[in-house]
Fold:
Amino acid sequence: MPGARGDLKLAQYYFEKTLGYANHLGLYSEELGLSGEHLGNFPQAFTHLGLISAAYYLDRKLDDEA
Structure:
């Protein structure tokens, strides 16, 4: 599939960027404000579940590429 490698690199970039929005304990809120402040429910389980799921599938794809 053309561009698939670029999409994987972009996914990895956004995943790693997302990790930078955690607080000092590695927790995430329900939403982020425009300047990165945590908004809504805190900590938010569904946000963490989505992050874990993204990490799992990204890792699988990166292993397939190796």
Observations:
- Residues 50 and 56 are 10 Å apart (CA to CA).
- The chain is about 55% helix and 5% strand.
- The first strand starts at residue 31 and ends at 32.
- Residues 45-65 form the longest helix (21 residues).
